[in-house]
Design a protein that fits this description.
about 425 residues; alpha/beta; Rossmann fold; Alpha-Beta Plaits; 7-stranded parallel beta sheet; 15 helices; elongated; (S)-2-hydroxyglutarate dehydrogenase activity; NAD; NAD(P)-bd_dom_sf; phosphoglycerate dehydrogenase activity; EC 1.1.1.95
């Protein structure tokens, strides 16, 4: 019979035996030091995460352009940006060592994704971390529009006392129409319902509603019944100018339009016309087709819009909260670290998503090959002929468009240089790394 003390000792022994296979910490074969370039005041959580890995980190509080950007990106292995830095093909062509791009925001339209993929550069973003911040901003805007607080605030700053109640409303009992019921739309739905609003939504995908929200079959149906319309869709060819003069005319007279999604989704001249005519009682706009590259007195692109009444304008700050930026910093930095250290490309937006379980610490001569190549016939045969003299412990391949990615753990490798030279000499090679 085993007593309690013996049972605990046996349990500890079993636990220790179970956990003894530690993960092997991999290091790059042909890169002595990983260089990270962070622009636009990327959150400190990301800086700390990269430094903890021992990477060399260079930070800037602003966006870089032109020759200054090209000079800085030339030696970088990873660049982290937000929405203002433009990574065009011309810029990426100069980034000979670049492995990955981190967009510390939702959008990736500031990056030429196809050009990056063709160079073997994976792009990561943070599509969900600022959802709550945007949803809360929209709630605040709805209340401000309902009470005309923007206009009253401006008047008070000008010394004008204008106490009125006409055309000022509670939002309780009103109808909110949400275009795009993704993470932000769903969060907004819950908050609005808690404040007594009735919520309808329209999305091209069939999505399970939260709470009492109800889906509608067409955009026109949504526009026709909503007191407030809030847009939450990505920028695609299908969503550009999806809210134009026709759609605004479909809205109820006296309704409100809010755009905290992408600047190209709402046609600015049509919005201006709707406000000037009085068909719209108000609007809130946080994103614009054209935005300044830096803070300061540079926003003079839409003078007619700026003159409209009951209009809340904000400088693309939907996700600009300390909480959101901290979470974005963590999310994107972890994706980049996993890609750099392990080759894991999960959640890349322009790239095949590939992952393998970790190599064990006791697998001394096992290396991980990360082979990015053109997606053409016969490549796997060529690469596997190179692997043929070794035991392939595990292997995974996937493709996305013209780009394909192979991850393979190869055992009994003693000559890294010869293996690396053979792989990069293959006809389809774009970028190859070996971790050991």
């Amino acid at each position: 019979m085993v007593n309690a003390t013996e049972a605990k000792t046996e349990q500890r022994a079993r636990s220790g035996s179970f956990n003894q296979n530690k993960v092997k910490v991999l290091r790059p074969f042909n890169t002595s030091e990983v260089k990270i370039l962070l622009l636009e005041n990327v959150n400190e959580t990301a800086v700390k995460a990269f430094k903890k890995q021992g990477y060399q980190v260079e930070t800037y509080s602003k966006a870089l352009v032109g020759e200054e950007l090209i000079e800085k990106i030339r030696d970088a292995h990873v660049i982290g940006i937000r929405s203002k830095t433009k990574l065009t093909k011309a810029v990426l062509d100069q980034a000979k060592h670049l492995l990955a791009i981190g967009c510390f925001c939702i959008g990736t339209n500031q990056v030429d994704l196809q050009a990056a993929a063709k160079q073997g550069v994976a792009v990561f973003n943070s599509p969900f971390s600022n959802s709550r911040s945007v949803a809360e901003l929209v709630i605040g805007e709805i209340i401000m529009l309902a009470r005309q607080l923007g206009d009253r605030n401006t008047e008070m700053h000008g010394g004008v006392w204008n106490k009125v109640s006409k055309a000022c409303y509670e939002i309780r009992g009103k109808v909110l129409g949400i275009i795009g019921y993704g993470h932000i739309g769903a969060q907004l739905s819950v908050l609005a319902e808690a404040m007594g609003m009735t919520v309808y939504f329209y999305d091209v995908l069939q999505i399970m509603p939260l709470g009492q929200a109800k889906p509608l079959e067409s955009l026109d149906d949504l526009l026709a019944i909503s007191d407030y319309v809030s847009v939450h869709v990505p920028e695609t060819e299908e969503t550009k100018s999806m809210i134009g003069e026709h759609e605004i005319n479909q809205m109820k007279k006296g309704a409100y339009l809010l755009n905290n999604a992408r600047g190209t989704v709402v046609n600015i001249p049509a919005l201006t016309k709707g406000l000037q005519s009085g068909h719209l009682a108000g609007a809130a706009v946080d994103v614009f087709p054209k935005e300044p590259a830096a803070n300061g007195p540079h926003f003079d692109y839409y003078p007619e819009l700026l003159a409209c009444p009951n209009l809340i304008l904000t400088p693309h700050i939907g996700g600009s909260t300390e909480e959101a930026q901290s979470m974005i910093g963590l999310e994107v930095s972890q994706s980049l670290i996993k890609y750099i250290n392990d080759g894991t490309s999960l959640n890349a937006v322009n790239f095949p998503e590939v992952d393998l379980r970790a190599i064990r610490e006791d697998d001394k001569n096992t290396v991980r090959v990360l082979y990015i190549h053109q997606n053409i016939p016969g490549v796997l045969r060529e690469i596997n002929e190179i692997f043929a003299d070794h035991n392939v412990e595990k292997q995974y391949s996937d493709s996305k468009g013209d780009i394909a990615y192979v991850m393979a753990d190869i055992a009994d490798v003693t000559d890294l240089k010869s293996l690396y030279s053979a792989i990069i000499a293959t006809r389809a090679n774009i970028q190859t790394r070996i971790l050991y």
